[in-house]
Structures
1.
Amino acid sequence: MIKLAIFDCDGTLVDSGDTIYRALDAALTAHGLICPPKQQSQKVIGLSLVEAMQRLVPEGDHAALAETYKQAFYDMRGAGQVEERLYEGIADLLDVLEADAWVLGVATGKSDRGLAHVLATHGWEKRFVTLHTADRHPSKPHPSMALAAMADVGAEPHMTILIGDTAHDMGMARAAGVGAVGATWGYHERGELVDGGAQFIADAPAQVVAAAQEWTGRHA
């Protein structure tokens, strides 16, 4: 049977929090708004842009804010100011999962363009078999991206795990019926992950392997 590991991107595969915060600050400032503190702002990472803006600033033209954010991020990328570094241990984790016959996928609140840039930066254009972004799906925690990823490769929920750093990811995983692995190295705290529905907690990428084995072992 096919084993599928679906990864969130920002806060799980790559540490892009500083860049995202700078783009958020630029977008809100352009509309005469004050950006909430960094720790608070990073809690919306992973949501689709309009939903993220709604959480940050309940009053405002959220669609316009989302477009301004996109342009700010695009301008930063053109200026070489975008940092999306791999978390330590992620490359090794992907190697271990692939060696154990796991198919890899991504489900992210990024745009198609943003995800393509991350994959190209790290030489991953062909590494992930299934890719789903906010451009084509409802915002997390809706299960659409996870369900589509399973359909792409023919995987069943009991053979699929989703690794993410936010409660939004955990809610998506639970709604799709897949194993929910909360990554504490990202932007939500352990308690938020548990409250969001995490069935497993990984404090380092290497710990995802045991969670993956336990999830599939439950249904062997």
Note: The chain has a mean pLDDT of 95.
2.
Amino acid sequence: MQIGVTGSGGKLGRATVERLRADGHDVIGFDLTGTPGPGFTRVDLTDFGQTLDAFLSVTARHDGLDALVHLAAIPVNGLVPDAATFHNNVAVSFNALFAAHRASIRTVVLASSITAMGFPFDDAPPSLPVDETYTSANNTYGLGKVAEEAIAAQLVHWAPETSITALRFTNVVAADEYGTFARAAEPGYRRDLLGSWVDSRDGALAVSLALAAAQPGFEVYNVAAPESGNAAPSREVAQRWFPGTPVADDLGEFESLMSTRKIRERLGFAAEHDWR
């Protein structure tokens, strides 16, 4: 397939481009920064005209896309004022999704986030591990992700065979960032992330699997390493952080408190990297 990847210059974007090319796809990256040449076009995704034009074709790059992976975003709160985070991210995602619709790109994978399901979890979630049925936004970044998921859920009805898969990524860790796990035994380590994390290469694997399994309609999957980033057993961590919150009887010893059961069961996701 010819696949477009927005945000191709980011941590997850770079891993995704590498993975999809290894899978045998032709990939073109769209971002504000990247290496000029085949496989990349500089696009300002806040501009709908540029976005639509880039998705339809780019001379010497591509003449049409079979699928789109939309990863571009301001990655966290605090880099710019809160309202600017929301306005940028929601506008960019609308532009990407609507341009894909107009360009008849019927397979889309969209980056959502753990911030759409309660982060930073000052209020306890209804149960553990937290699955895709729980949606709660507590900052402007998360509010944007909830809005983007809602847009995607409606757009799939606008054209037959449209498939949009939202992947709720947790903290993405690159191969050279494992030093942070030296803190894994600290009582509050990664509490705001439910102790979860995912290697960027496994995040890219999730994108690949979602593309391969795309079916008409809208679907949401959590993406995290199946085992937590904490040294203590998960049931002990759950009791420490969220006393009184119901915990699944079959919770694994170190199973992530951000549930990955759905993506493992439906897409066959099996992380290839573990900090342990």
Note: The longest helix spans residues 82-102.
3.
Amino acid sequence: MTPFLYPPLQLKVVTPKLELHGATDDLLAQLLPIVRAGIVSQPPYPFDDPMSLYEDNPVRERKWLQAIWRGRGTVYPESWRLYFVIMLGGKAVGMQDLIGVNFDTCQTVTSFSWLAPDARQKGLGREMRAAILHLAFEGLGAVEASSEAFFDNVASNRVSEVLGYQANGADWATRQGEKALLHRWRLSRDDWAVHRRNDIELIGVETCKPVLHIK
């Protein structure tokens, strides 16, 4: 009997620098030491509240895993979340998520990501965002992507700017209980096409579409 393979866990996005693999439990286990050690240890804090990655151990890793497991099973035509582990030279170094927002009517997405501290400042943030945008626009037919980052998250804001996002206002959120300003960004399909790359490979998209209610 052929074992059942859940299509979102078989998805891959391959670029010349890195690979995004569907976040299986085996791959999540490889990330656990990074989560346990702590992704953020000092300001500026990149995540808004509530965020399990700010919790103390062992609550941190337990809530992190529970959120991913819960997200896997919460799939509707209008909203879904795909979780990917970033693989660099065969080593798990972070996560990149793609989130459908009113996807059945508006075909819009947003994204979320983090990297291990020792994997930062190597150009990987831009590469993994380009990879997930390629999946969204080329693979899943998105028409718009959004992003947001705190005003002092220089790296994330710079990635959005370089990849063609347009400034889309500001908002407030809290982090560690303190309010802070968010920069909001918007990327249309036409603006993405200007930066579209031809060296990114998508694997397993067609078998995943029915799970996400995409025709």
Note: The chain has a mean pLDDT of 95.
